[in-house]
Structure formats: structure tokens, C-alpha cells
Amino acid sequence: MVKELLAYVTCAAVLSVPAMAAGQPREAESQTSVQGTVEAVDYKARTVTIRGVKGGVVTLDVPPEAVRFDQVKVGDTVTATYYDRVSLRPKPAGEPPVDRTMEPTTVGTPGALPGATRTRQRIATVTITGWDPANRVVSFTTPNGTAYTRGLLDTTDAKIIEGLRVGDRVDVTRTEAVTIQVNPAATPTDTLRNRLTVSVLFGWDNQFSGKVIKEADGRTSGGAPIRLDETTYDEVYGRIGILKLGVGYRTTPRTEAVLNFVYSSSDASEDATRVGTVGTTPVPLDVIFTEYQYWGFEGGQRWFFARTRFTPFVGYLVGLNRLQDIRATFVNVPANLLPGLAAQDGKMFEKSWAFSLGPTGGILIGVGPFEVMAETQLRFMGGLSDVDWLVEEGLRDVNSESSRWSLPILVGARIRF
């Protein structure tokens, strides 16, 4: 709803108040309007600074009689109607400064839109800070430090114009009268411009479940008892790095389809990881693993809560990933006690395909055509594959809990096209 502010604003003026039959000031023909945005509000000094849509800045005074002045905020779009002319009188040396206001009178038709306007005249001693004789525009500063730029009345004495200089002290007379209409903020209209985005995200895949090896008992191909202990991803690989290169395409103003290329890799611990024992007299099974690595593609959708500078979103992603071989090198294990995988190039897990899926959430922070982006996901990743030696040695289920849940936290940026 439009809020209409009736205020009396420092504007055009005459040197004195002539008697008019209709009660209207002679400078009424200098009334003007400005549309723009509130750039500054000084509630204590009761001034409003407006930057016009066509450029230029105007400062208007708001006397105590103005209603709802406290509702005017920086950023408001307003339309102000005011008198933009002043008259001035050179200030004789030694004459004391003045700052007085005459009581307002009502002019116009009461009840007419934007409403009846009241006018009053204010005379103040000011200092000239700028003078454009070609356009008859003068800038001045009042004793309280407020700066104004106004035009001179056409009736201004030519001798005054010729003698006017920056730095002069003069008495400026202006008519205070204005209506300010605060327009409601426009509701942003979402469009389908900039449909395509390209993004880069990187971070850590923080797993909180899943085992590289499940606890199990069996025998080696040579008949020696073997016991494998539960070994988690964190024990072997720690946090796993992940990189996503993505493309987004807006299907509606607040939804977009997403396609990501995913690459993930993490080196194993530099020290051998103890995974169990082997032999009648238990010999430790210490293993150095190769890296955990996969690549894949995932697709999904995002829903945006709002299209603003800070835009939260939720969504989902479903992917298909190609896991690479994982090999193990046993350290200080006698040859007669080595498990069967030693004869298979140390391959503990075969290459395989695994699904990934889960809900996502995040935020976009707009910076021009770029957007800083943060995203997380409750992510399920499929398990590793079986290998032959596990079946032969009674350890078929040792990798049955190798699927994992994780909470990747990714940051990056994207650009809109």
C-alpha cells in the first residue's frame, strides 16, 4: 500500500511574502517533482536525501509537522513534489545571521491528490559553496552543515547575480512545501534469464559409517587361520577429498536441473594399517593400501527459497560412480602365511560401479554474474566389489559393509550465462 508523507521541505522561495489574492506564493510556478531513491535519512536533523532516477541528488528538509517521517527508510522509492527556487540577499558585513520560519498557510484544493499542500517561508543566513551563473544554480550550506543545491528565481536582481561569489554569506529565502509519496517496494519478478550456470565445488567427504574390511575369520589357501579386524575408512583414508564440476539449467524461476562430474581421491595412511592376524601363532597383518579413487556423474535438481543476494536451496543428487582398484601390500608377513591376494597383484578390491544418492542443501551468495556457493549432502555411496581370494579363503562377506554414509561439505563458485 502506498504511504503518503505530507511534509514541508526546504525548497523554493521569495525574498518576502507578497499579499496574493488566492493566498498562493508567487513562486508556485517553480514547483517540480523528483522520482528517485532515498539515499540518506537524518532523523535528528530531519532531512531526506534523494537520488533521482535521471541522476542528481536533492536534499529536502522535513519539519516537525511531517507525519510518518520515521517510516521513511534508505532505499525507499519515492516521488517528491517541491519548490526548487530560492531568492537571496547579500549579507552586509557585521549583520547578525538569521534563521526564522513563518507560519504555514494552506494552498491548493484540500482533498485533491496528492493532497492539499501547506507552505511556509524560511529565511536563513548561509554560505555559498557553488555557483553556476549559466544555469542560475546555486549551492549553499546552512549553519547546521546541511548542503543544498537550488535554482534562483527568475526575478532575482541582475546585480546580485553578477556579484555572487563562492564563499559569500547571504540570506536565502525559501518556501517550504512538499508532498513525499513513498512507493511500495517492487516485488522482484523472477525471469528465466541467465538459465545456464557453470560451477566448481571442492571440499571434504566426511564419512560417518562404512568399513573397508568387516570383521571375519577364515583360512589362507595354505590352511593357516586368518582373522581380519574391522577396519573403517577413517582408519585407512581419513577424510576423502572430492571435486565437482557442474552445469545447472533453470527449468522454472526457482528450480534448476543439475549435472555434475565428480572426482574423488584420497591417499591411504603412510604407515601400514593393521587389519588382523594370520597363523596358529598369530602374526600381525600390516597392510599398506593404495589410494581410494573414483569418478562419476550425478544429476538432480535444486529448489530455491528466494532469488535474492543470499539464496538458500534444497535438492537431491543421484549418481553412478566408477571405483578404482584398491591394492594391498603386506608388510613383514612370512611367505607361507600370505593370503591369496598376494598372488593377484595384491588386489584387495576390484574396479566396480557404485550408486550414490542423497538430499542436498546449501546457499548461493550473489556477486554480480558470479555466485559464491556452499553445499552439503547426506550422501550414500555404494560398496566395494568382491575379489576371488576372499571367496576361496572363507572371507566372502568381509566387504559386505563397505558402502558408506557421509556428509560432504563443499564450497566454490559458479557463473551465470
Question: What order do the helices and strands come in, and which of them pair?
Answer:
Blueprint (H helix, E strand, L loop, with lengths): L2 E8 L20 E12 L4 E6 L4 E5 L15 E7 L1 E6 L8 E3 L3 E3 L9 E16 L4 E5 L5 E6 L5 H6 L5 E15 L12 E12 L3 E3 L2 E4 L5 E4 L2 E2 H5 L2 E13 L2 E12 L6 E6 L4 E7 L2 E13 L5 E14 L2 E6 L15 E3 L2 E16 L2 E8 L1 E3 L6 H5 L11 E13 L1
Parallel strand pairs: 6-11
Antiparallel strand pairs: 1-12, 2-3, 2-5, 3-4, 5-12, 6-12, 7-9, 8-9, 9-10, 9-12, 10-11, 13-18, 13-29, 14-17, 15-16, 16-20, 18-19, 19-22, 20-21, 21-24, 22-23, 23-26, 24-25, 26-27, 26-28, 27-29, 28-29
Brief digest:
The protein is mainly beta. It contains 3 helices and 29 strands.
Assign a percent range to the helix content: under 10%
Assembly classification: single chain
The count of β-strands is 29
Low-confidence segments, given as residue ranges, are 1-29, 107-117
Average pLDDT, to the nearest integer? 81
Q: How is the biggest beta sheet arranged?
A: 9 strands, antiparallel
CA-atom Rg in angstroms: 39 Å
Number of helices: 3
User: What gross morphology would you assign?
Assistant: rod-shaped
Distance between the termini: 36 Å
How large is the share of residues in beta strands? over 45%
* Class by alpha and beta content: mainly beta
Main attributes?
single chain, 417 residues, mainly beta, 9-stranded antiparallel beta sheet, 6-stranded antiparallel beta sheet, 4% helix, rod-shaped, disordered N terminus
